[in-house]
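Hi team, as promised in this morning's meeting, here are the two structures we talked about. I've kept the exact order from the run log so nobody has to guess. The first one is mostly here for context; it's the second one we should focus on when we meet again. Sequence first, then the predicted structure tokens.
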Amino acid sequence: MISCDRFLFIPIALVVFMLSCKDRKDLVDQPLYDGPISSKDSINTLISDSAKVVMHMQAPRENSFENGDAEWPHGLNLESFGDEGESTTSFQANYVYYNKADNLYRSEGNVIVRNLATGDELNTEELFWNPSEEEFYTDKFVTIKSEDEVHSGEGLKANQDFTSYRILKPTGSFVLEESAQPNPVQ
């Protein structure tokens, strides 16, 4: 004698199996998450090489991605130090993205690089830093202020401590003069 329960079990099992396959297909069809795998707030990091501090990094937030890329979406400030521990170069930007595969940093928005020894200051809206080549470069408009001159143009190549630079398409250069103070009325 065959039980009715067996006849009910087979159709129910088939329905459950078919529904579970549909759920798996829905999961497989979901887009992969490509956002940060970690976020850190209030970054304040000292970076050393051979027991000497070479860089100080500060940022409101740092996002890290699964592929090794990193992002500082609310800005980044860096200060580099020389062999004797003196500040040599400062860098700031409103947004920075690091591409690990290319070992390349892309900075955007009010990018400022200063050589603290000479006082030279670079201003641009986009700047790339290649640590492997130890250079900065851009094809955007740049302005460089030195002690008594201002240079401007499109494109730039500079070493990473900003002691040597070249504007690729210069558009202007002018000498800053001290303003003459009027003589007091006697």
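And here is the second protein, the one for discussion:
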Amino acid sequence: MTDLAEVLAVLDLTPVEGGFEAGSLDEGHGVVFGGQLLGQTVVAAARSMPGKEVKSVQTVFARGARGDQPLEIGVEEMHGGRAFGSVTVTISQAGRLCTRSLVLLHAPDPDLIRHGATPPVITEPEATADRGQGAWWDVRYDAEVDIMDPAAVGPAQLDVWTRFPGAPQDPVISQALLAWASDGFLIATAMRPHEGVGQSMAHVAISTTVLTQTISFHEPFDAGSWLLLAHESPYAGRGRSYGRANVFDQSGALVASYVQDNMVRDFPEGQAPAAGTRSAF
């Protein structure tokens, strides 16, 4: 079973000329989880521009990565100023581009104005169902919600409590771990209103993948403490879905937001995986 030390190991990038190298967490799916690539992108950008915080990451997922080969992470500076900086981060494997991201970094200024969205009123995490992600990643949401069951129907909303117990008190690692967590729930949120479609069918009976994701960090937070990921999917159609989420700490402060464009479609003719196997898309 995966533990937090293994997760932190793949976020501990090895410097090389032009960027970094990294390994992957083998979760037995044959393809690297997109959230891992987002987390590694956050770390690569932050380490390339010390003294600034990552403000936003805009990522296009071009193709999947394999868990049994190293990742090459290229970083190119676009701009470096006193208040703002920007870099591109490209993750490749065996010469094939997997993701490319535009990352904005900043040195925060004192407030001139301030407001933030308020969280939905939901059950506290200790009273919600433990979804069994393992000791390293605590995921909980309403016991009456089953995103895996194609027969379970509900609104295109999903409120998820998450934390990484024992995570180090490191703001960059906290951002990387939230980026990791952010990748996994918006496709399932889009499926909820549609009977006959569920997360358990992804990569088996239907073809799904994250196409693009943008995550913006608003306030410092601790990924080892509870965070509420409040998801909604206002649109699905034409083989795609769109979703967005606000992230709140347990005090109700808005600490981050993210949006995704996804693919949700039937497999093209002749491309469905064989029985008992999974596809990367």
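Starting points for discussion:
The CA atoms of residues 12 and 22 lie 7 Å apart.
Residues 34-48 form the longest helix (15 residues).
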